[in-house]
């Protein structure tokens, strides 16, 4: 796109690159903000239906689909209060810290083969790392509010998020191991084809790991039943007790943004990314190359696929929220340290052994063998992967021998 | 390239002596400032956690230098870069910093439980 | 579409470098200047985050992500946790005496002058980078950690045996384990002793009923806060 702007439109390079970066940023911002609007409405409707109510019905027609817009306007008009003993600077910037972390993690998330803000060699790692930074906003908010409820909520959140990063990281490592790369685009690309190629169905261990990932993801974005940081039955509203108006809504945008993000990450890592369950494009003879309108169309469909999967993930989180009761904090820690971490570790070892002994899967030809290394540092295509490694190993051995 | 570079430097303000693109020396300057800030922080802060933060800054300043020397991207004409070695060392520094912080924090909390303060000047029980 | 924006757009490299460098240095100075310990923690977070940006710019993507994950997301959360646990009114701001400040300023100025002189002393370091696009570094690092080197030796490097990092890797893992155990022990020791002392006290009391002084509970302990509100 930048090349197009430079060559065809005649923009100077610096302006072209700025425009490109701006377009990507605005698109991602739209995904978060628009997503939040839709998800808040969906959350109300789902909560209502699960509790045998109707939910919003008046604003914007029969289904109340303008409700969250009306809410947004109300929040904008609300007075921005700050408690007396609060630390002004920290209180003001805390919501933005949260939101920025959630937003920045989207940079490396691919929406389709080429639709990615910045393709990173360490994409999955970057996403998980940046997502972990969201906790700083919450901690700052809890401290700066000068309220016991807020502080308790923030401390719980800090303990919870730091603990859950361990099993979450272990779950994420399994698809990385299978794909042989941390690049999210490559990971999703490797699951192309029929849905049996998805890493969810790669072997029994990855199947279990996926559910551990779901548990940890729900916990790491602080959704019920792990929403101890804002447990309204004990802590009023937890870390955002003292917030109102726009700042409060930034916390919510951050929360829905991270929910969408972990769902999309799950889709990319385990559910084939932008590849549908049936390889329609491949059957029709189209391929995800570069160039044609047809290929562009295929990518658009892929983008829709990913958004659909991620949205489904968010809806499942809502379903869980309105079904399960909240855990106690010690139970939350027990789930993390006594169950999730050991299970993830065992499954990681299991997936590794499976990959070692049954690289082709149980039924030969059903799914593609994973695990070839293809990265830029190798001279040849995937098949030559063993070359440099083997040579280097031999060299090392030879050097050690004398 | 050069036109944009000129604009970039003009916007960013402080132009160094040879500010025609970023060189290793630029990174070394950043590392030096971080390192000095860390040293001062360790020296003047009386809060034990402030001292800890100073240590983190010092380690980070060292890391910036390692990364700068490791980067093939920054390597100038005729200079030798550390390659992967520098990155691996930086990795070890980060890991050891995490370990160090965990232990130091445990010590600080124990000190706080025993003395009800985190002022390092009050930790003089063993003074003869 | 925008593939490889960071490395292909060399023009932006300088601009972003100055941005991140100013952020990193500015907030580092902020850590030194601030008196409020929570502000210090915030500035430290921002400074280290900006440093991670510098790592990305230098082509060390893996180290940058590692810095964000372990340093900023792990170590500093732990640090902020400690700040919160001890942040009671008298300790939030502990002032430094002006004499100390002046002394520290002098030492800092001389140290900085020395370091800057060293940074600019080697001519090769001052030449602008050639802008070679860095190889994706995650896989060579991972392979180097298990003792095999696959990366090309950097141009101009003296020939010789380049070692892998299997032994340091193992040492670090054992070290982390030791730290884990040690930190857990340090954090638990107080409470365990208190518990036993209470039991001893109870048994002694049931025998002879003297006035036994129950050791004071750990004040503001982590356990009370972590489980706060649920009991």
Structure description:
Chain A has 402 residues and is mainly α. Chain A is built from 15 helices and no strands. Chain A folds into two domains: 77 residues, no CATH class; 279 residues, no CATH class. With 128 residues, chain B is mostly helical. Chain B has one domain: Helix Hairpins, CATH 1.10.287.3510. In chain B, 68% of the residues lie in helices and 0% in strands. Chain B has four helices and no strands. Chain B starts with a helix and ends in a 13-residue tail after the last helix. Helices cover 71% and strands 0% of the residues of chain C. The radius of gyration of chain C is 26 Å and the shape is extended. The chains are: A mainly alpha (402), B mainly alpha (128), C mainly alpha (231). Chains B and C meet through helix 1, helix 2, helix 3 and helix 4 of B and helix 2, helix 3, helix 4, helix 6 and helix 7 of C.
- Broad CATH class of chain B: Mainly Alpha
How much β-strand is present in the residues of chain B?
A: under 5%
Unreliable runs of chain B, pLDDT <50, ≥5 residues? Answer: 1-19
Structural class of chain B: mainly alpha
Helix content of chain C: over 70%
Main sheet attributes: strand count, strand direction, barrel closure of chain B: none
Distance between the termini of chain B: 66 Å
Tell me the total number of β-strands of chain B.
0
Assembly annotation: heterotrimer
Helix and strand sequence of chain C: HHHHHHHHHH
Structural class call of chain C reads mainly alpha
Count of helical regions of chain C:
10
H and E string of chain B: HHHH
Global outline of chain B: elongated
Average pLDDT rating of chain B: 76
Q: What gyration radius of chain B follows from the Cα positions, in whole Å? A: 20 Å
Q: How would you sum up the global shape of chain C?
A: extended
Q: For the residues shown, what is the average pLDDT of chain C?
A: 73
Helix run count of chain B: 4
**C-alpha termini separation of chain C:** 55 Å
Pair with the most extensive interface?
A: B-C, 94 and 108 residues
């Amino acid at each position: 796109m930048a090349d197009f702007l430079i060559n065809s439109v005649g923009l100077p390079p610096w302006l072209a690159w700025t425009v490109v970066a701006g377009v990507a940023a605005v698109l991602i911002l739209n995904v978060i903000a628009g997503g939040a609007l839709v998800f808040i409405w969906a959350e109300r409707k789902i909560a209502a239906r699960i509790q045998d109510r109707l939910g919003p019905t008046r604003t914007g027609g029969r289904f109340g689909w303008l409700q969250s817009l009306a809410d947004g306007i109300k929040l904008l008009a609300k007075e921005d209060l700050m408690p007396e003993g609060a630390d002004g600077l920290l209180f003001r910037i805390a919501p933005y810290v949260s939101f920025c972390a959630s937003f920045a993690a989207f940079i490396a998330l691919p929406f389709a083969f080429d639709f990615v803000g910045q393709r990173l060699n360490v994409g999955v790692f970057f996403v998980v790392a940046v997502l972990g930074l969201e906790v700083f906003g919450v901690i700052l908010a809890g401290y700066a509010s000068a309220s016991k409820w807020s502080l308790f909520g923030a401390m719980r959140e800090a303990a919870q998020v730091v603990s859950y990063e361990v099993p979450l990281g272990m779950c994420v490592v399994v698809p990385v191991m299978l794909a042989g790369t941390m690049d999210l685009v490559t990971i999703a690309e490797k699951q192309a084809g029929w849905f049996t190629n998805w890493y969810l169905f790669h072997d029994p261990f990855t199947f279990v790991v996926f559910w551990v990932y779901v548990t940890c993801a729900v916990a790491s974005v602080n959704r019920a039943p792990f929403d101890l940081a804002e447990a309204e039955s004990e802590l009023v509203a937890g870390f955002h007790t003292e917030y109102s108006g726009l700042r409060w809504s930034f916390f919510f945008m951050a929360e829905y943004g991270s929910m969408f993000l972990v769902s999309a990450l799950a889709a990319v890592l385990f559910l084939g990314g932008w590849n549908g369950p049936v390889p329609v494009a491949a059957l029709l003879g189209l391929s995800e190359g570069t160039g044609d309108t047809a290929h562009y169309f295929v990518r658009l469909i892929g983008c829709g696929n990913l958004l659909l999967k991620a949205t489904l993930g968010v809806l499942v989180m809502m379903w869980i929220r309105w079904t399960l009761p909240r855990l106690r904090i010690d139970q939350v820690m027990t789930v993390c340290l006594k169950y999730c971490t050991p299970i993830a570790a065992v499954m990681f070892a299991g997936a590794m052994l499976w990959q070692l002994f049954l690289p082709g899967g149980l039924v030969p030809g059903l799914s593609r063998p994973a695990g070839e290394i293809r990265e830029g540092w190798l001279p040849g295509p995937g098949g030559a992967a063993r070359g440099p490694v083997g040579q280097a190993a031999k060299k090392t051995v030879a050097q050690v021998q004398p | 390239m050069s036109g944009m570079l000129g604009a970039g430097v003009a916007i960013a303000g402080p132009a160094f002596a040879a500010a025609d693109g970023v060189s290793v020396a630029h990174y070394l300057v950043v590392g030096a400032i971080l390192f000095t800030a860390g040293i001062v922080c360790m020296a003047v802060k009386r809060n034990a956690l402030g001292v800890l933060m100073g240590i983190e800054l010092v380690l980070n300043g060292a890391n910036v230098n390692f990364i700068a020397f490791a980067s093939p991207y920054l390597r100038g004409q005729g200079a030798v870069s550390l390659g992967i070695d520098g990155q691996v060392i930086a990795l070890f520094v980060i890991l050891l910093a995490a370990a160090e912080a965990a232990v130091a924090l445990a010590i600080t909390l124990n000190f706080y439980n025993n003395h009800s303060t985190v002022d390092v000047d009050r930790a003089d029980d063993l003074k003869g | 579409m925008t593939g490889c924006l960071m490395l292909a757009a060399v023009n932006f490299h300088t601009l972003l470098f100055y941005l991140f460098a100013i952020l990193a240095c500015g907030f580092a100075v902020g850590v030194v200047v601030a008196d409020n310990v929570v502000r210090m923690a915030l500035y430290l977070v921002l400074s280290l985050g900006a440093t991670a940006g510098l790592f990305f710019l230098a082509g060390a993507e893996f180290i940058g992500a590692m810095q964000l994950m372990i340093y900023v997301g792990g170590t500093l959360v732990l640090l902020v946790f400690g700040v919160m646990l001890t942040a009671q009114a008298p300790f939030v701001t502990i002032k430094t005496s002006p004499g100390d400040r002046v002394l520290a300023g002098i030492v800092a100025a001389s140290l900085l002058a020395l370091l800057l002189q060293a940074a600019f002393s080697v001519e090769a370091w001052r030449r602008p980078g050639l802008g070679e696009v860095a190889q994706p570094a995650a896989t060579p690092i991972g392979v180097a950690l298990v003792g095999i080197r696959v990366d090309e030796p950097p141009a101009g490097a003296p020939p010789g045996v380049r070692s892998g990092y299997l032994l340091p890797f193992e040492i670090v893992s054992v070290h982390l384990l030791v730290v884990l155990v040690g930190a857990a022990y340090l954090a638990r020791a107080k409470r365990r002793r208190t518990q036993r002392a209470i039991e001893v006290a109870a048994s002694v009391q049931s025998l002879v009923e003297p006035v036994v002084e129950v050791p004071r509970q750990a004040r503001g302990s982590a356990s009370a806060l972590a489980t706060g509100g649920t009991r």
